Amino acid sequence: MIDVSIVIPVYNEEESLPDLFGRLFPVVEALDRPAEVIFVNDGSSDGSLRMLLEEARRKDYVRVVDFNGNFGQHMAIMAGFSMARGDKIITLDADLQNPPEEIPRIVAEMDRGHDMVGTYRAMRKDPAITRKIPSKLVNWVTNRITGLNIRDYGCMLRGYDRRIVDLINMCKETTTFLPALGKRFAQNPVEIPVSHEERHKGTSKYGLYQLIRLNFDLMTGFSMVPLQAVTITGLLVSVGSLVFALYLLIRRLLVGSEAEGLFTLMAINFFLMGILLFGVGIAGEYVGRIYLEVRQRPRYLIRAVYPEDPKP
């Protein structure tokens, strides 16, 4: 019987893996309880898979799931969830920005009865302009939209009870945001601060576009507020436009026609066009997600599992 499963997505982390192995495995062995480590190779094009397989041969508690392509961090974690056999499942990034040494603290919180242990990065070591400030803004906006009240959506070092993971595995959504989904299913969640380190090797796999897409998945996957906000905005703009048209009509009757307001009208027209395009874009996001769901394509493809997969 496995008590703790640690799921780690890996995408082109050849430079970071030796340090990860050197710090993670002593932590796992010091837990003094049955544990397993599941690495999910998310279509790496470097030597990551070779290094993972070497460790799987050395350590009997290491398993490797190899994807047939790159499907993204959250899909890699979902695959790890489907393979995990532990009562407590912990997710960890491979870049060592969240130290593996924090894992015993998460396990201890779960031993106290918490079915989900969220974390937030204390003294975050990322650049302020490109990471920390935008992250705080996104966290604030997302909490207002979804009502989940998660302090740090970007920290993937988290613990999930077996019940929550089983519920997540039952969900067949094509796109999802796992920390938010886990928080929605949790009955006794808790958040704790964890240390954060600079990335010493390799480069971040999350560019601006990936971060924007991830936050769209989060907001549109857990709330109808964006659509409702567009509807309310359209209503307010329509009322404002009617009032403005009445004002222009009365002014024309009292003062007469004039051409000085031409550029003002053009500015208002461009503003209304921007509102319209924004609304169409939000509606398109939801329609696009419906399109992805109705196709019913596999969320990920597993090429192989090493060693041969024992059924949970």
Automatic annotation (TrEMBL):
Keywords: Cell membrane, Glycosyltransferase, Lipopolysaccharide biosynthesis, Membrane, Transferase, Transmembrane, Transmembrane helix. The keyword Cell membrane applies. GO terms for molecular function: undecaprenyl-phosphate 4-deoxy-4-formamido-L-arabinose transferase activity. Residues 5-165 form the Glycosyltransferase 2-like domain. InterPro entries: Glyco_trans_2-like (IPR001173), Glycosyltransferase_2 (IPR050256), Nucleotide-diphossugar_trans (IPR029044). The keyword Nucleotide-binding does not apply. One of its GO terms (cellular component) is plasma membrane. The chain crosses the membrane at residues 229-250, 262-287. GO terms for biological process: lipopolysaccharide biosynthetic process. This is Glycosyl transferase family 2. It comes from Thermanaerovibrio acidaminovorans (strain ATCC 49978 / DSM 6589 / Su883) (Selenomonas acidaminovorans).
